[in-house]
Amino acid sequence: MAESVDTDAELMMRVRDGDREAFEELVMRYQQPVLNFISRTLRDETEAEDVAQHTFVQVWKSAHRYQVTARFTTWLFTIARNLCLNEIRRRSRHPADSLEATEGDESEGPSRPLADPGAFLASDHLASSELVQKVDEAIGALPENQRTALLLCREEELSYEEIGRILGTSLSATKSLIFRARETLKQRIKPYLKTGEWT
Q1: Closest CA relative to residue 20, chosen from 56, 71, 68
Q2: What does the buried/exposed string (b/e) look like for 6-28 if buried means 16 or more CB atoms within 10 Å of the residue's CB?
Q3: Would you give per-residue pLDDT tens digits along the chain (199 residues)?
């Protein structure tokens, strides 16, 4: 991983000089982590793919502004977060009904693929996947800053300092956001683990 971190800045400096191969290498390296982060933030697979593509378009367009003052991933996830915030603001100004909702599906969140009726799933696997779904729901319900901080910490394994740079918060405020997010999740999930009921 250390080699990857060292070469990110070198690749980005080449991108700044117009090197498309260096850009493609960065896209290959980070397209999945960026897509995962955006998917968990927006909770919409189709929108996430569009925003992820736009993130890399912005990386290319903004390459001339890149400075090697922090890790490349900090700069990259700052762009991704800002584009997510733009999308969330756009949604609030122009809400749209999903196509699934017009077909009588009243459930919230993105539709999930139907399970194969011929496949046998053990009850412990079902319980595990249900727990993952409940945790995802709880994360999705967190305030935006807490959710972003937690996802960057948990999924992307960024340091508190890097997360603070992305969010524009102090180190102590970043630690506080992550602590509050974890406490909220504990409070939501504890009753479910005890009773199996989601409140």
Answers
A1: 56
A2: eebbebbebbbeeeeebbebbbe
A3: 444 556 899 999 999 999 999 999 999 999 999 999 999 888 888 899 999 999 999 999 999 888 888 789 999 999 999 999 888 888 777 665 444 444 444 444 444 444 444 444 444 444 456 767 778 888 888 898 999 998 898 877 888 999 999 999 999 999 999 999 999 988 888 877 777 665 6
Domain 120-199: which CATH number of 3.40.47.10, 1.10.10.10, 2.60.120.330, 2.60.120.10: 1.10.10.10
Rounded to whole angstroms, the Cα distance separating 89 from 109 reads 17
**Burial of 149 per CB tally in 10 Å (0-12, 13-18, 19+):** buried
H helices within 2-143, ranges in order? 2-16, 20-42, 45-61, 72-93, 99-102, 123-140
Instruction: Record the tokens describing residue 183, joined without a space.
Output: 């406490």
